[in-house]
Amino acid sequence: MHVVELTEPGTFEHRERQRPAPGPNEVLVEIRHVGICGSDVHYYEHGRIGDYVVSDPLVLGHESAGVVAEVGSDGSHLEPGDRVALEPGVPCGECAQCRAGTYNLCPDVEFMATPPDDGAFAEYVAWDTDFAYRLPDGVSTRAGALCEPLSVALHATRRAAIDLGETVLVTGAGPIGAMVLKAARAAGAGDIVVSDVVPSKLERAREMGATETVNVSERSLEAAIDDFTRGDGVDVVVEASGATPAIAATTTVVRRGGTVVCIGLSGDNEIPIATNELVDKELDFRGSFRFRNTYPDAISLLERGVIDVEDVIDFEMSMADLTAAFERAQEPDVVKGMVAVGSE
Ligand SMILES: NC(=O)c1ccc[n+]([C@@H]2O[C@H](COP(=O)([O-])OP(=O)(O)OC[C@H]3O[C@@H](n4cnc5c(N)ncnc54)[C@H](O)[C@@H]3O)[C@@H](O)[C@H]2O)c1
Ligand SMILES: C[C@@H](O)[C@H](N)C(=O)O
């Protein structure tokens, strides 16, 4: 089968590999669509993310969907021909976190496209049947692939426990911020303010349902939120930029008794946070890491048309043009690039 390997930073090589046979509890999936995530681009550019270093050729891509080609010997809830979205992290199932149900925190998770585990820029992937979810007729594999970033947003929205009518600030209008905006809207948020530094992304956020946008390269976030909420602060902040100033501002722009959920990962591991504000305002300040038990809900939201992900996608290119797709994905206006591995 055909795969694309990242062999060194900035270099993809198209190679042939043995088509995998599904293990007893696996399905073999013919991949159709894979979204390009910021972490794929980071590995492509730098060959590492923190301690995760690409030392052997690595297949990138963890936002994937395709068609079941074969079922392993133990059988499956799926049949050949079923279209599926693949949840990219398969946890060990045995550790304390897995037993507690917080399987997104499993220290031994195998996560696609994270060294040493290969991802989905490949014709076929053999994957645990429990982490392959059937897509209904109305949901394409192109949309199904985006169950992954949508899942990041659904998990963060749950961590934020957004209540009906609450005012939410989403910092960052990249793919994760856009998905959070959609998830917060679906969760019944009232006003949703989105901040970014790229005007076209803020325009897109308005088209996707943001009530107000703030270009923080022109105006301070603190002043804008102060004006918008008449000094009260927002009920909930979901930080989805990873930008140090945005993270540092979260405790100031949230109201007393409000909630901050951080998704974004900063290049600075340590950021000054006004800890007295945490206490004095009695804030809930929480992290949100990947997702758990979100795929069925993501698929249901797509099927019922509650959330549309098509408007997040800027372009679709074929896997034959993966280098060009990764170069284009880095343009500042681009929110999401999609790669077609086969045709639906
Ligand atoms: N916690 C998790 O499980 C998880 C999962 C996926 C991504 N992430 C992280 O979430 C963040 C967002 O992911 P993404 O793929 O959307 O990234 P992205 O880089 O595509 O988007 C970030 C956006 O933030 C904007 N931005 C830059 N400075 C800003 C500022 N000061 N205020 C507001 N916006 C600003 C950028 O212009 C960009 O549009 C990244 O840090 C990523 O590493 C975390
Ligand atoms: C969750 C996923 O999208 C993220 N890029 C990660 O590797 O954790």
TrEMBL record:
Keywords: Metal-binding, Oxidoreductase, Plasmid, Zinc. Residues 1-24 are annotated as: Disordered. Its cofactor is Zn(2+). SUPFAM superfamilies: GroES-like, NAD(P)-binding Rossmann-fold domains. It comes from the Archaea. PANTHER family: SORBITOL DEHYDROGENASE (PTHR43161). This is NAD(P)-dependent alcohol dehydrogenase. It comes from Haloferax larsenii.
